[in-house]
Amino acid sequence: MQMSFRWYGEKNDSIPLRHIRQIPGVTNIVSALYLIPVGETWPYEDILALKNTIEAAGLTFKTVESVNVHEDIKLGLPTRDRYIENYRATLKNLARAGVEVVCYNFMPVFDWVRTDLAKVLPDGSTALFYEEDKIRGLKPEILVEQMEHGANGFKLPGWEKERLAHIKKLFALYKEVDEEKLFANLKYFLEGIIPTAEACGVKMAIHPDDPPWQVFGLPRIVTSRANLQRIVGLVDSPANGLALCSGALGADLDNDIPAMIRHFGAMGRLHFGHVRNIIIDRPGVFHETAHKDDAGALSMFEVMKAYHDIGFTGPIRPDHGRMIWGEEGMPGYGLYDRALGAVYLHGLWDAIEKTSGGKQA
Ligand code: DNO
Ligand code: MN
C-alpha cells in the first residue's frame, strides 16, 4: 500500500508539497494537469515538469487523478474518435513519465455533486453535504451557478467551466442516452484505450459515481457491485480496473465496501483506493465526516483490513475531509483533516500488519 495525497498543483493548491511531505507515511502524490482542456493530449514535457516538481519535494508521482473523458465520448457522438485518439496519446506520455495508475470517471455532465459545500457540524467543523430533496427542487443551471462560486470562493474540482457553460445543450443531448447506451459508450471507449494502456503498462481505474444514483435524471452506471462487475467485463484486461471510493459507493448502504474490495481485489482489478467515512442521516441525505472508524456509517477498520488481506500494493488516499481548525481553502481538500485521515488509516494498516504477524491473509 502506498499512502497517497491528492494535490492540485502549484497554481491551484494552497497546500505546499513540503507540508504534505511532513505527514508521516505519505509518499505518493496524486495529481493531474489541470490546465489542459478536457479532450486534449497532455504533452510529455508538461507531465515531466509536474513529476520533477513532485520529486524535488521528496515525493513520488505514479498516480493520476483524473484524465477526464470528453463529453462526446460519453454521449457516443461521431467526434469521439478524435478524443479517444488524444486519450491514447496522453496515456503513452504518462507511461513514459513513469505513471502507473490513471483514474477517470464516466459521469454525464457533472462530476461529484453536493448541495452544500460547507455544512456546519456540531463540533464547528464544516463538511460537504448532499440532500436529495434539494436537488429535486433545483434547476441544474442554478446548482452550477452555486458550484461556480463555491464555498470560500473555491469551486468544486472536476467541474470544467467550458463543459458546464453548455449545460442546457448537454442535457438535451443526454435525452437520447439511457443507462444501456452509456454502457455501450463506455465499452466503445474502453475498447479504444485499454489495449494501449495494457501495452504501455498503465492501469485504468474508473471512479464510482458520486452519489451512486441518478442526479437530474442523467444516467449513472458506476454505482453498484453488479455494475462494476459488468464494467470490468466490458474489456477483459487487467488494465481495465477500478478506483474503489468508499464514500462515493458507501452513500448507498446496499454497497458492502469491504466485500467489494475483496472481490475485485481477488480478480486483480482493484488499482486505487479512496478511503473516507460518511454519515447517512437518511437514504439520500449524507455528509462527510472524520476518517475514524466509528465516526460514520462505514468501518474504516474493515475497509483497511480488506485492502490488507488482498495484499494491496497500489495507492490509497484519504478522500474528502472536513474543514477544521479554521482552515480555509478548497472544500473537502484542506490539509488538516486529510492529514489526520492519512495517519489514522496508516495506523490501522500498521496494527493490522503487526497483529497478523506481517502476513497477508
Ligand atoms: C472528488 C473526487 C472526484 C474524482 C473523479 C475521478 O473529490 O473523488 O472528483 O476525482 O470523479 O475522476
Ligand atoms: Mn473518491
TrEMBL record:
<keyword id="KW-0464">Manganese</keyword>
<keyword id="KW-0408">Iron</keyword>
<comment type="similarity">
    <text>Belongs to the mannonate dehydratase family.</text>
</comment>
<comment type="pathway">
    <text>Carbohydrate metabolism; pentose and glucuronate interconversion.</text>
</comment>
<comment type="function">
    <text>Catalyzes the dehydration of D-mannonate.</text>
</comment>
<dbReference type="InterPro" id="IPR036237">
    <property type="entry name" value="Xyl_isomerase-like_sf"/>
</dbReference>
<dbReference type="InterPro" id="IPR004628">
    <property type="entry name" value="Man_deHydtase"/>
</dbReference>
<protein>
    <recommendedName>
        <fullName>Mannonate dehydratase</fullName>
        <ecNumber>4.2.1.8</ecNumber>
    </recommendedName>
</protein>
<dbReference type="GO" id="GO:0008927">
    <property type="term" value="F:mannonate dehydratase activity"/>
</dbReference>
<dbReference type="Pfam" id="PF03786">
    <property type="entry name" value="UxuA"/>
</dbReference>
<keyword id="KW-0456">Lyase</keyword>
